User: Fold this.
Amino acid sequence: MKPGAANKFNEKGWRGYLAIRLSETTNLDREQEPVDLAFTAPAPGDFNPAAELRIVHAGDSGPEEIPAQFYRLERKPGEISGRVAFLAERIPAGGQAEFRLYHGNSHAAAPDYASPMRVSEGGNGPQHYFIENEFYKIETMPQSGQIWHVWNKKGSNKSWHHNEWNVNKDKGGDPCHWAPNCWAAYPERVTNGYDVMTGGEDIDLIDWNYAFGWQNPENEIISGPVFHEISRWGTIWPHPEHTNPGIRRDPSPFIRARVTYRFYAALPWFYQSSVLETLKDMRCFFIRNCQFVFLANIFSHTFIAPERKGILPEDEENAAVLRLMGQINRKPYSHQQHSLSNVLPSKLAYYGFYNEENSDGFALFQLVEKNSNTRLGAPVYQNHATLFSELPGWSSYYCRAFSYTNQRYNPENATFLPDGERYEEENICLIFKHADPADTLARMKKADMCLKNPLKAELL
Amino acid sequence: MKYKGWNFEKTLLIRSDSAFDRPGEFIDVYVAVETQSARNLANDVRVVIKPEWNRIGPELPCQVYDIQEHGPVTTFRVAFAADIPANATRRVGILYDNPGAARPRYETDLSDSGAGSDFAAENRHFRARTDPLSGQIDELTIKMQVLEYTHLKRLTPAGRPQEGIRVIFAGKPACPAASCASSWREPETTRIEGPLFCSIARRGKLSPPGEPAAESHPSLEIEYKFFADYPFLLVSSRLEFTADTPVYGIYHDSLAVQESCFSHYCFRPSTPSLPETDLEEAGHILVEPEYTRSLPPGPIFGDFLPYGLPWHAFVSCIRKQDFRFDYALAGIRLEDDSSSPGGPAPAYRAATYLVRDGGQLAWFRAPVYVKKQDCAGNIIMIPRGTIYTAASAWHLGEWDEKKKWLTGIDALGRRFNSKLSITQHPRFLGGQVPDEKRILLPCGNFSRDYEKAGVR
Assistant:
């Protein structure tokens, strides 16, 4: 059974159920809407969680079982608690629907929900996976597990990866998911920085402390018929392939991160979150998150939508659609990286790209940006903005900068970051097929409304 | 002695605290003299550099205007251009009171013509012509000099005078009615002409379309000022609401150009959280029709451009077939103020907007911007007595890929917004001097926008 697909459910033999009421509160028709909620149900000693929990839609045509994923389950005497995820197939604007969590049936067998998602090991490293559903195929990096290649199966089905370093071109290039990351600053090193303008890819004035430099970090995988979730965490060391081992550096950890992906089996989008923390005082030339990077020739246009902050209830925001210059080599100054300077706020409603010829589309919806210093309260911000970078023959990307120096490598522009900086983000990444600008913008606006106003789920 | 016959002299001490030289600085001072020494001011004023307090150096061309007699005191203004070195004080003498002096003739590249609202001004860098009915600039043509040839390219749309100011009145029931300065018909006009600068100022009521001018309608004043030798002109506006007025929008500091003339829009923000040791970075948006045809008309970059951009520009870096030079038309912010009785002036979605529509590109700064103009809930009420003022310099120049233009415009903005200190000596003891009226000068109030190490 596919997630979202329904089967008649026989209530006989089940000990009871918990009623779940889903309410649509933003006046939008919903389809394939994910629901994820905590529950606690009675569970005698011989309770078999794999077989004795079900989600059932109590609709007009009688109870229908739908695929559900029960996870993070915890047994206590006489009860079981945990979370359950499922998709509500259709709820009209302003409508309600009743679902039931049935529990307790010692004769029930474990359900067999066929998932439309395939997850397979890539074989080139401990974090190397292919995750594929009807809408996309995603490959993770063999060592770090960061998203490496993305294919839009409804579009060009061409890899969207990125090439930062020439040395990686023949090895599949560099990842699409580039963050969180930091250029740790070492401006006092007397090194090849003096030759920075004359070539060389790696500058000793910095260390690349990037999540995609992880070597098989600690991780957790939650897999089921509704979603496949991968979390990784640990110290971010200087990237092993792009760090000069001959330079003396502090060997103690100073940045730690956690990155989570949740891929839904039946949805064209996936969830991504990260937390980045400083573990001791340090200096940086930049520190960023929210960064998916694509080859410059992948997309022809970008769109950006602001949050509604300060806009009257009946007024409408203006989304922007811009022709990318990197793709067609029309930048006025060929080496100026950030096309939109630093005028974009650090938190947008969403942004994205599309290709008007092959219909590839990618959008990122920003759910959460939360920054603090765990000791001091307020985090350090120097140039706190969303930056948009594009260069011909290279890449196009947005990133959120907390501190970002425009004049790199200068000792006076290294930002001091105290111990306890903590940057958190949650995003939704949508892979879509573009038709025309007005249609794409309307779809993005609706998706944004739905993603930021999930169904209200109540356990009655 | 060359200046035999002149009886009096004022001394100006012009001090620059800037770290850069200011060649050809335009200076315009308000001078008070005793009326008995002011019988021939239109002819006898001379401006001279003074290397020492008791030495007279070269004479500077000057323009005397606005001579006003107030009983025993006469006031006038005198404009001239002087080279002011970095971090230095320049002493300048203003000689006057020579009944026998004849008006000097100075060589100038500035010329003007027309009458009433019909005005044309031209120097070696550009040509401007106004719409004869409204007095709004209709034509702005850049001149590019190569050897002995001058190449001309009109940058503004034909037959569509600059709107200048747009107020979108909220009519009843919740119906938008837009009125622009270009809909003025022969407003009251003041002109100044001379070898150093010429100007035209117009004032009148900005009434909703179809309504006769009424006292309750906003009062508007717009001025253009053109200079000899400089590749820029100044544009200012002052909008005053004389009654409580419901609106959907107030747009000022606007400039519309032909879409086909430009390839990019360039903007330079000011970033408060960037350390002063760092560089500001200019942004660029592709606006070339060949690549933007499929995009919807209207605002190109949403509300993302800050209201207080220090400068922005339309750029052509495509060497068009008919004009094989790269050029740019930049707007540098000089003044921006708003006030309302009892509090700040209303602002809603205040931003700089870049708009593409009907073959033209336009920018404007909107203190009030409503997108959905058919809802009563979106009406913004502007209280009586609210005033919005703005002034900018529009610079026409050659664009280059080596960033000479980019750094040059930023340096010009920095210079415009770094004021000189000008003191007059000796103190005037001849009677009560009327307060100096505000005049439009290439001097701005936004030095803080230029505190960073530079721009790239």
About this structure: The helical segments of chain A are 437-452. Chain A touches chain B through 49 residues (CB under 8 Å). The first strand of chain A starts at residue 7 and ends at 8. The mean pLDDT of chain A is 93.
